[in-house]
Design goal:
single chain; alpha/beta
Length: about 260
Amino acid sequence: MSKIGFIGCGHMAKALIKGLKSNKSYELFGHDRNTKNLAWLEQEKIPFCSLKEICQESDILMICVKPKDMYDLCSEMRTYIGNELKIVSVAAGTTLENLKDALPGGKVYRAMPNIGAKHNLGITSIFSYEELNEIIEIFNYLGKAIVVEDEDKINLHTSLIGSAPAFYFEIINEFEHRLSELLPDDVSKRDITLLFLTSLISAIQNGENLEDLIQSIKSKGGTTEAGLNHLYEKDFINIFSEAIDAAKNRAADLSMD
């Protein structure tokens, strides 16, 4: 049984813990200073460890703190870690080289999961010069692991896979807001949203070209064409792509902060 410790038990760590709890091959531990996160660990029956304990007892250590807190944490950790400890950072922007300098002991990896890991539907990019099989196995259990050979792609993953779900949620939020104009009070907006999104997933499952799917809904001079034309006039496609770039650039900025 592999012992996996989590340092920093905020949103991402909680998603990873939720996804891994069902796998009896892993024994999970947590460390945090936030009282709400400590209460969550207790609620989930995840043992709390001191920083020294979690560094010395874990086979694999997931560092899930904010980038701004990373180097102070590493300074505290470095006297506790052994050369065989596998250290996985999920912090945006903190480069592998900087992590290895900050943590000269241990084997260091970067992984960028997304919130879908909570339901074992996550997508994770991994970068390291170390042997990867065990780390890939963990993140494949949480969804799908992708090994990248260029560390710059981690920043693209951070924005495209990590941040973009929030962009979609914002669109869905407005969709539900407009549903309020349509539905009677006794019909759940969320039920309609789920049915709507399931129909979209069903439509693309067979690999049909997305342009063909758009054309199958759009008719010349019709309502769909009118709506799409408005999106195109407002440059919606480029706006969405620029949002991805803004998040990617911020990930790169974090590596220099």
